[in-house]
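Dear colleague,

Thank you for sharing your sequence with our group. We've completed the structure prediction you requested, and as agreed, I am returning the results in plain text so they can be pasted directly into your records. Please verify that the sequence below matches your submission; if there's any discrepancy, let me know and we will rerun it promptly.
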Amino acid sequence: MTLNQLKYVIALSRVNSINEAARVLFISQPSLTSSLKSLEEELGFDIFLRSKSGISLTVKGSEFLGYAKSVIEQYDILDAKYISQNAVKRSFHVSMQHYTFAVNAFVEVIKQYGMDKYEFEIHETKTHEVIENVKNQKSEVGVLYLNEYNRPVLGKIFNDANLKFVPLFDCNIYVYMSKNNPLSKRKLIKMSDLDDYPCLAFAQGDYNSFYFAEEVLSTYNYKQMVRANDRATLLNLMVGINGYTLCSGIICEELNGTDYCAVKLDTDEKMTIGYIMRESSVLSEIAVKYIDELSKYKDKVLE
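Please find the predicted structure tokens below.
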């Protein structure tokens, strides 16, 4: 296995065409094909599926691509620092369920490190994609929650993907809603109080099972349910139809504004906020700083 072969795989994954990749790489098509075949024989599995319409990554190939990108990125940093002596931007990618505080922690890291030497990428997305992004090294860490219900299933998924979950803090469950909602003045809300209002949840696409839900108490028989893909839409629905969602209760008025509130739910249920990372990896300096910023929200957890 050579660095050139890893670069070839990365180029092929971008264009899905051997002819086009050869043109971009300035090598002949037979040379590229031969090099790829040699690498696949050495690995013992196919990286790409070939068809008349082009090529596509296999499941193992997708996993291999993540490691290849990591190796090339580290090589480029070494080359820039010790050989070429050119400035090269380092990158930090993070994925997360839809948590405003996790976005805010990301903002704080950008402010501290700046964008002259770093490139940042954030994915606020579905639970399954958070896991896949970390598994395939598209993101260094992924922020999500576990509770007694989803822990056994997600724990097995983490183990199978060679990921580990690191807990940060525990939270009680709160009802997050517009301050115009009639329930917003309550000190405590029971589940039965919510029956007249639509529950808002994040759609999980093809993985729309209870275990992948971003909201706790996902198996409750809600009388009204509306699903959306993004946080901004959920906030609009809280105002437009007096909807609510269940969350950690951590308020980030810096990003969401002051028109929303969190009222404690009458339940013994708890959620553990944490992050996933690859089992054998060592977090970068900037990832450690991001985790540190996340940990600060432990002091903002409502009782």
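Summary note from our side: The mean pLDDT is 90.

Kind regards,
the structure core
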